[in-house]
Amino acid sequence: MKLKYITLAATLLNAALLSQVQVLAEPLAYSDGVLVLTADSLTDSVGSFTADKLPIVTPLNQSTLKGEQSPIVKGMWKIALNDMEKNLVTTPENGTYFAAGIRYTTRIYTRDISFSAVLAGNDIYPREMLQSLKMTRKVRLEMGYKVSSPHVIKEINAPWEAITDIEKEVMAKYSSNSYTRATDDVIWMWAIDDLYAKNPDLADWQWFYTTGEKFYNDFYAPWFDATDGLYRGQATFQDLTHNGYPESYTITDCVLLKAASTNALYYKGLTAMVNAARKSGQSDAVIAKWQAKADALRVAFQREFIFPDGRISYYKDRYGKLMPNQHNLGTALATIFGAITPEQARLAYTLYPVTPRGVSLIEPYLTDKLGSHNSADWPFCTALFFWGKEIAEGKSYQAETVAQLARAMGTKFEPKKPEKPGAKPSNEPGDWGDGFGSFHEKIDHVTGLIGGSGSQLWSAAGYLNIFLRHGQVNIVKDIPAK
Predict the structure, then answer these.
(1) pLDDT of residue 269
(2) How far apart are CA 15 and CA 302, in angstroms?
(3) Cβ atoms 240, 250 nearer than 8 A
(4) pLDDT at 284 > cutoff 70
């Protein structure tokens, strides 16, 4: 039964790709009356820009687009490559790896690296991505459950060790946050499985299996709740106690919930372990053990998260109540991984709105505090959402996805944040001074204004993914040696 679902999903995606081959007879263009992409311009609800205003950059990687592509599409392609390369950093402790955005310097975020790897890095920068992913495993093993005292979750049976009262001191010591702020850590398994599949010459399936087994036993199993077959932990990428959760939520509330998006990642992680077990020569019994875990989680996902009308709940709270809201990554990841049936995916997508201002992270917004992890559009999330939408509906949304992500390049920006508390915001664009001409972190879904870091790793990867997924790239792997 599982194979049938996966085969059907692949057939639908192939249909989308075949339809896109016909579209590419002409340059990509899109218009819904508000969001308009032409060969030379992008117009959205708050402004516009033209291709000739894009900065001219020379990325080190020489991958190019196939076919007839417009000036604006080609210009943004080079910028996306350049943005990813801007995020390569080197430190004495951790070597060379991908950071998350130019604002984030040398911080280590497994989720940012992993999403970016699957979206584009595994295709174009596989060696750099492999080094980055292995570095996250080294650092996470070193940290273990050493956390700041507010991040000790007594309800979870794990070897907690409070090493400071201040979370910033954890970041200063390890360049990464306490594990409590990274309870979607299982995402690295998707990234490594995808990297090895695309680059067999780099694959070390024994390392993957051994490392994956250790992480499952030490870091993931304590968060499993046998009463409903789901894993506790934050919704992937939704920062704790930020505006992606109700105002009243504590750190504990945020990680004792069970999120659709994170459970979809666990399902993918378990199927990746099945693959790693096979590739590394484990016994049939071991392979069957991981397959049984994956199958059971898939059943639990469909039983616990899907409403009668077909919507997929954002999460089930710590007390067992389903949130009526949806989360775009919950819908997207469940579809991409096959955690739901094709019919469930199709119905879920009909019930998740897309607007000229993008795909909101949460639908409907949480009403008690709007903000960047609630009423906002994040380009990498939108790329994943449309990836799933093409699978669910069996047709291409390539031009629309390009138009949506192009908005992150720049029409109008949030004002700069004041340097001192109480000071008036600046009239200058860019809340971090990054300005026009790179792929930014987020777009406010209410105002349409761009915010956050420029040259954001996963935003750039999301744009590259649009063309990689449709087989339209002449891939040149990695960065030429200097």
Answers:
(1) 98
(2) 26
(3) no
(4) yes
**One-letter amino acid for residue 355 of the chain:** T
- Helix residue ranges per DSSP H, 175-310: 187-198, 205-215, 251-256, 260-279, 284-305
The pLDDT value given to residue 421: 65
Does residue 262 contact residue 184 with C-beta atoms inside 8 Å?
yes
Residue (of 382, 263, 271, 377) closest to 330 by Cα position: 263
Q: Which two tokens stand for residue 47?
A: 């402004």
pLDDT score, position 422 = 63
Is the bond preceding residue 353 a cis peptide, omega within 30 degrees? no
pLDDT digits (tens, 9 = 90+) for 122-143: 999 999 999 999 999 999 999 9
Residues 357, 359: Cα–Cα separation, whole Å:
7
Q: What would the pLDDT profile of 226-245 be if each residue is shown by its tens digit?
A: 999 999 999 999 999 999 99
- Between helix 379-393 and helix 457-469 the angle, nearest 10°, is 20
Give exposure, 222-246, as e/b (b: 16+ Cβ within 10 Å).
ebbeeeebbbbbbbbbbebbebbbe
116/295 Cα distance (integer angstroms) = 27
CB 62 within 8 A of CB 77: no
SS3 content of the chain, % helix, strand, coil (to 5): 50, 10, 40
Highest mean predicted confidence (pLDDT) among 9-23, 413-427, 434-448: 434-448
The answer to whether residues 12 and 394 touch, using CB atoms and an 8 Å cutoff, is yes
pLDDT at 34: 97
Taking every pair of C-alpha atoms in the chain, what is the biggest distance, in angstroms?
65
Residue 329 has pLDDT above 60, yes or no: yes
Q: Which residues partner with 362 through β-bridges?
A: 327
Q: For residue 199, give every residue at least 6 positions away whose Cβ sits within 8 Å of its Cβ, in sequence order, or none.
A: 122, 126, 130, 477
Residues 6+ apart with CB under 8 A from 180: 147, 151, 152, 153, 240, 251, 255
Between strands 146-148 and 161-164, the pairing is parallel
Nearest to 203 by CA among 194, 211, 212: 194
Enumerate residues 6+ apart whose C-beta is below 8 A from 426. 415, 416, 418
Beta-carbon count within 10 A of 64 CB? 16
Higher pLDDT, 104 or 256: 256
- What lies within 8 Å, CB to CB, of 420 at 6+ separation is none
Q: What average pLDDT does the chain have?
A: 92
